[in-house]
Each structure stands twice: as structure tokens, then as C-alpha cells.
Design a protein that fits this description.
single chain; four-stranded antiparallel β-sheet; 4 strands; elongated
């Protein structure tokens, strides 16, 4: 069944609208992935600072290091002695407040500490909880004065990542149903255009699969073309966006953190678009060869 010329405009406009829907979904995937990459990269700088008591013994430090090694969430940890902390403090204040940098009594107040980093495979969503758990354990240990990890920043950081993912998931679901609705309407219009042909096929005893097959193919092709075109558009958007970031925001060094969606996600999007078109078509033609077209003709 070849579509008449008057139906081509509808098919073309449907292709544009559905492609736009898939572009929105692809852009949501790109934003989600790259925001997560960037924020995870920044999150690698989050670390615990464990301030030690001035009277902590060598045995106490050994017990702390044993605790660090026993926690699978902890990666690297380094001891910053009071001497090193004092030296770093002097260097930082030398040009701003040279008098303070020479005040021995004030500088002796700086304690020794451990700088503790988490392993890299901890998700951003659970990072804050892990840091709070370790902090609570450490504060109850002998020889530890205080523990700091920028609690407010970490909590806001985790909440921001979660909010982005939730928002984009909602947008993706809404656009998904919108694209299916648009494709279903296009197939429904195609069924109406070929109504007379369907009536004839029903009368001569054509099976359901014979009548439905061209429309299912049409819906699947529409979904395939739309999702493929959307990926091409998204690739162009990604290339331009990466170039802008590299040119104007090069000082942030984000270029290495930006990446296009993975090959398996590309395949999923194309296959999903094809299946979505076929499902949308089936919803419109499932009643064909059940008296649907003939009843429509009598009406």
C-alpha cells in the first residue's frame, strides 16, 4: 500500500516532531552523563581531614591507620605532621601576613592531621552518607579532636546530582509518551487514508497480519529514522558544545570529562525508537480485520 501524495506532508511533519522528541531524550542523556562526569571529577577532591590531639601516641596513630585500612570505602590517607602543617602555613602567609607567620605561639596551635580520600568507585549519591558514617566513627576514637569534610558542600553536591537525574528522568518519560502519541496519530491517519483498501482486503479474507504488517513496518521505520536523525543532531550539538567549553571555559579543564553517550546507549536508543514506532502502530491497527474498517465505512 503506497501512501497517497496528500499524506506525505503529514508523514514529514510527524518525522520532524518525533525527531525533536528523541533529540530532547538524547540531550537529556548527554546532560545527565556529562554533569555526572564533571561532578564526579570535582567530587574526587572531597576528603576527610582528621585533626589529631596533641597528646596522641604512636600507638594511637597506628590504630587510626589500621582503621583506615579496614574501611573498604577509604582509598588513600596521608599524615600531615605538625611540622609540615606549620611549614605550609608559613609559606601561605609569608606574603600576606609576615608577622603572623613568625609568631611561634600561634603556629603551635596548628594540629597534626590525616588527609583521607575515598575510593573512586563510590557513587556521588552515596558519597555524603559514607563520609558522615566514617566521620561519626572517627569522632568517637581516642586521639581524634575533630573531623571535617565540608559537610554542607558535600550534601549540596549530592543533592544537586540527584535533582538533575530525577528531573531528566521525568522529562525523558514525558517525551517518550509524547513521541508515541504523535506516531500513533500519524499511523491512525494513514489507516484512514487506506480505509477503502483495508475494507477490500477484509472482504476477500485477508489475515490480520497481512493487513497490519505494512502499518507496523511504517511505524517501525518512522521510529528508526527519527531516533537515528536525533542521534546525528545530538552528535552535532555535543561537538559544538564541547568546542565552546574548550574555547571559553578552558581554564576549568573540563574537556577530558566530556564524552558522548556510550555505543550501547546509542544502540538502545535506535532499537527502542524502532520498537516504540511499532508499538504505536499496533495500538492503532490492533482492531483491523475485526470489522473495524467495515464499521468505519458504514459510519
Amino acid at each position: 500500500m503506497r501512501p497517497p501524495q496528500k499524506n506525505l506532508a503529514l508523514k514529514f511533519s510527524t518525522l520532524i516532531v518525533v525527531t525533536a522528541c528523541f533529540v530532547v531524550m538524547g540531550a537529556a542523556l548527554l546532560i545527565s552523563k556529562n554533569f555526572k562526569n564533571i561532578l564526579t571529577h570535582w567530587g574526587e577532591d572531597v576528603q576527610l581531614t582528621v585533626y589529631l590531639s596533641s597528646d596522641i601516641s604512636a600507638q594511637g596513630r597506628d590504630e587510626l591507620e589500621s582503621y583506615f585500612k579496614s574501611r573498604k570505602e577509604i582509598g588513600d590517607f596521608n599524615l600531615v605532621t605538625q611540622e609540615k602543617a606549620l611549614t605550609d602555613f608559613r609559606v601561605q602567609l609569608a606574603s600576606y601576613a609576615p608577622d603572623i607567620s613568625q609568631d611561634e605561639e600561634l603556629l603551635k596551635m596548628i594540629p597534626s592531621s590525616y588527609q583521607v580520600k575515598l575510593v573512586k568507585d563510590i557513587s556521588t549519591d552515596t558519597q555524603s552518607q559514607v563520609l558522615q558514617s566514617i566521620s561519626a566513627d572517627l569522632k568517637n576514637r581516642t586521639g581524634v579532636d575533630d573531623v571535617s569534610f565540608g559537610q554542607d558542600w558535600v550534601e549540596k553536591y549530592g543533592a544537586f546530582v540527584s535533582a538533575i537525574n530525577l528531573s531528566l528522568n521525568i522529562v525523558g518519560i514525558v517525551v517518550l509518551f509524547a513521541s508515541m502519541f504523535v506516531m500513533s496519530n500519524a499511523i491512525r491517519a494513514s489507516v484512514q487514508v487506506h480505509r477503502d483498501e483495508i475494507v477490500v482486503l477484509e472482504m476477500i479474507g485477508a489475515t490480520s497480519s497481512m493487513i497490519r504488517k505494512p502499518f507496523l513496518k511504517e511505524g517501525a521505520l518512522l521510529g528508526f529514522m527519527s531516533s537515528t536523525l536525533a542521534l546525528v543532531v545530538c552528535l552535532g550539538m555535543y561537538t559544538v558544545g564541547k568546542s565552546v567549553v574548550n574555547t571559553r571555559l578552558g581554564f576549568l579543564r573540563l574537556n577530558e570529562q566530556l564524552s558522548f553517550i556510550s555505543p550501547w546507549m546509542i544502540a538502545t536508543m535506535i532499537i527502542g525508537g524502532t520498537l516504540l514506532g511499532a508499538i504505536g502502530s499496533y495500538l492503532c491497527v490492533r482492531r483491523i480485520n475485526d470489522g473495524y474498517a467495515a464499521a468505519s465505512q458504514r459510519a
